[in-house]
């Protein structure tokens, strides 16, 4: 399942990088990407993309995945192709498409093993993805080198700060509801999961602090891999959740 999702993701990434090659070439960091830098030609990129498509189809057939899984993967590819060919320039729709990709990956996992994704998983996952997507947009807008990118038209620092604050509140709020819900209490056999909320609040606040203060360096991946505070907070959250939900 993982390899099917991986090949589908790489397919749309290649397409998006090809469509963005001129904009990326003017970016101080993205200009190092293989297509933008010219290290990989259009024909080579096309060959890799076709290979990813064939591999994804072949693996899906070989493992005999169910119809819902195939529908999720096809939806992921379709919306990302639409993103590359126009939706990336539509304000708000662009971040919605980006965040929906993360939700579809969650659904790909649950449908592949034939379990139902909980409402809280979809809500919290989708809202967190939106938060990260808006944080990335803020970082892009804060960078002078990306000021003329068409995908940033219609956004402003003030609007993005409001969006980040709203989504941060929503993520924390829905997570709180999850920890005290009948679903969580019944599934994990405890009413103490609410104690893990404190780590979620601190982690979200730290992300907002970094996204606002560092501006152009607010890439979610860079923050997750480079910010020790967030790494420690995430580790403590996971340890506490496992201790309360599975050990005690």
Mind explaining what this structure looks like?
This protein has helices at 2-19, 21-25, 34-37, 42-63, 67-84, 93-112, 119-142, 157-179, 182-188, 197-214, 220-226, 228-247. It is mainly alpha-helical. The chain has twelve helices and no strands. The two termini are 32 Å apart.
Q: Low-confidence stretches at least 5 residues in length (pLDDT < 50)? A: 1-7
Tell me, what's the shape? globular
Can you give the helix content as a percent range? over 70%
Mean pLDDT: 80
Which band does the percent of strand residues land in?
Answer: under 5%
- Per DSSP, the total helix count is 12
Number of extended strands: 0
Secondary structure class reads: mainly alpha
Major β-sheet profile = none
Write the H/E string, N to C: HHHHHHHHHHHH
- Tell me the Rg in angstroms: 20 Å
- CA-to-CA gap between the ends? 32 Å
Annotate the secondary structure layout.
Elements: H1 2-19, H2 21-25, H3 34-37, H4 42-63, H5 67-84, H6 93-112, H7 119-142, H8 157-179, H9 182-188, H10 197-214, H11 220-226, H12 228-247
Helix pairs in contact: 1-4, 1-5, 5-6, 6-7, 7-8, 7-10, 8-10, 10-12
């Amino acid at each position: 399942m993982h390899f099917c999702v991986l090949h589908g993701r790489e397919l749309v990434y290649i397409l998006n990088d090809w469509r963005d090659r001129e904009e990326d070439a003017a970016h101080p960091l993205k200009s190092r990407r293989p297509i933008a830098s010219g290290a990989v030609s259009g024909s080579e990129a096309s060959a890799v993309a076709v290979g990813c498509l064939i591999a994804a189809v072949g693996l899906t057939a070989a493992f005999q995945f169910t119809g819902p899984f195939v529908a999720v993967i096809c939806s992921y590819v379709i919306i990302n192709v639409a993103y590359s060919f126009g939706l990336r320039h539509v304000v708000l729709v662009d971040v919605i498409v980006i965040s929906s990709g993360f939700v579809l990956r969650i659904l790909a996992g649950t449908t592949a093993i034939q379990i139902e994704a909980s409402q809280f998983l979809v809500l919290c996952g989708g809202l967190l993805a939106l938060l990260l997507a808006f944080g990335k947009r803020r970082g892009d807008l804060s960078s002078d080198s990306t000021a003329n990118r068409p995908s940033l038209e219609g956004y402003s620092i003030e609007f993005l700060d409001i969006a980040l604050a709203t989504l941060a509140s929503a993520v924390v709020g829905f997570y709180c509801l999850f920890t005290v819900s009948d679903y969580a209490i019944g599934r994990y056999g405890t009413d103490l999961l609410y104690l893990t909320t404190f780590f979620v609040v601190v982690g979200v606040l730290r992300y907002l602090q970094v996204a606002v203060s560092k501006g152009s360096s607010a890439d979610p991946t860079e923050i997750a891999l480079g910010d020790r505070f967030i790494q420690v907070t995430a580790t403590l959250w996971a340890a506490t959740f496992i201790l309360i939900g599975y050990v005690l």
